[in-house]
Amino acid sequence: MQRSFFAKNPSVLVFLALLAIFTLVVTVLSEGFGMGFISTSFIKTLGKTLCLCLIAVAMDLIWGFTGILSLGHFAFFGLGGYMIGMWLMYERTRLIVVESLSQAEIPPTSAEVVDAIGNQIFGVVGSSEFPLVWAFADSLFLQLALVVLVPGILALVFGWLAFRSRVTGVYLSILTQAMTLALALYLFQNDSGLRGNNGLSGLQNLPGVTASQDQVSLWFLWASAFALGVGYLIAAWVVSGKFGSVIRGIRDNEARVRFLGYSVETYKLAVFTLTACLAAIAGALYYPQAGIINPAEIAPIASIYLAVWVAIGGRGRLYGAVIGAAFVSLLSTWFTGGQAPDISLGFYTIKWVDWWLVLLGLSFVLVTLFAPKGMGGLVDLWTDRRVPNRHGADLGPDDGALREKEASE
């Protein structure tokens, strides 16, 4: 009798249960629920952390399981934020303009309303006309579709060009980084249509919603937790079956998998596109909680940080990616938010705001050298996921097969 997916992957149920319990506890203790033990600002921090955990899962899927070190996934993350940010900014500005023009003696025409909206949004870059990229900004449904379509199509085209050319290893990493840098430099230009280095702001204000920020922050927390749960479930399903075995084989020995008749490029392209879409969904939920997005968010350094999170958490383990992203994100907030006390050495005062990145880099080096399994390896020890004790028996059916002691050396 064939076992179900959850029976073969009990860790998925454990993760989903822990995520549900975490969301419930935070909700009950929040200001929006009425208890007031957790501030609204920290609720937003937790919601953003859940979004970062989702992109970390995507990164682990492409790097930890497929062996492709992508240094460009934060580009997809940022594009998702830009797509939803365009609607949020347009609709919020439209409501303000309509309310202000409604007080005029002569009702404004539709063209006058659009011109006023354009002037409000693009006046900061010396323009008042809507660029072509804002063609669907007035439709929430279409912009939600573009959250997935734009990054997905970009990943599909880029991946097809890169993988069909058999670019691998560090060269592929450099290409993904170059793509991210090119996109960031383009968005920094005022004529990009997305307000240049000013970016999109005021995204925390949901148009037409009269609820307080206490309640809105809870809504986004729930949405982020739901997205993380679904994304984790999708990633676990992808790596658990035959597809997962093939991408692991590509990671370990691409030439052998190709020799066995599998279309390596197709598998790579499928994973690359899927993870780009997951990253975009995470970004679409992250930036309304952050309130602003600008091209600096897409800089290549952000994707490097993402790789560090996954390495510290333990790549090749989905829960390791979540642990790493959550741990580093919350620790970063504590150190850079001025909450960590400065340490006076007499001749020098250690200010953690200045030293946090050094500490993060040192942690990455130490984990790489001495704990390659990352923090997820601690979970393995706790659950006793080690080589079974065969008491010296042969590991294979034939006499003289590699024994347990030999296999562990």
What's the quick description here?
With 409 residues, this protein is mostly helical. It has helices at residues 5-8, 10-29, 40-65, 73-101, 110-122, 140-164, 169-187, 213-240, 242-259, 264-290, 300-313, 318-336, 352-370, 376-382, 404-408, and strands at 200-201, 292-293, 343-344, 349-350.
Percentage of β-strand residues: under 5%
| String of helices and strands | HHHHHHHEHHHEHHEEHHH
- Cα end-to-end separation: 37 Å
Helix percentage: 55-70%
- Cα-based radius of gyration, to the nearest Å: 24 Å
Main sheet characteristics: 2 strands, antiparallel
- How would you describe the shape? globular
- Give the low-pLDDT segments: 404-409
Q: Structural class given helices, strands, pairing?
A: mainly alpha
User: Biggest sheet, strands in spatial order?
Assistant: 1-2
Average pLDDT across residues? Answer: 87
Number of strands: 4
Question: What's the number of helices?
Answer: 15
Jot down its keywords.
mainly alpha; 15 helices; disordered C terminus
How would you portray this structure in words?
With 409 residues, the chain is mainly α. It contains 15 helices and four strands. It has helices at residues 5-8, 10-29, 40-65, 73-101, 110-122, 140-164, 169-187, 213-240, 242-259, 264-290, 300-313, 318-336, 352-370, 376-382, 404-408, and strands spanning 200-201, 292-293, 343-344, 349-350. The strands form two sheets. A two-stranded antiparallel sheet has the order 1-2. Strands 3-4 form a two-stranded antiparallel sheet. It starts with a helix and ends with a helix. 36% of the residues are buried. Mean pLDDT is 87; it is low at 404-409.
